[in-house]
Amino acid sequence: MVGLLLLKQLENLSDERVVLQFKRNPYYQYFCGYSNYMPGMPCNATELVHFRSV
Asked: Which residues, at least 6 apart from 5, have a Cβ–Cβ distance to it below 8 Å?
């Protein structure tokens, strides 16, 4: 989650867009700690909003 929030800020993306980019981009996944490509999403955009508010 922290990796996604960092990428969101660095790339100036919306919550929905950063989650979609995570699904499509293996470099985003590697940045977030995944060693193998995972075709699914780790979370949805509403979970990012909840994580950020905690």
From this structure: 48, 51, 52
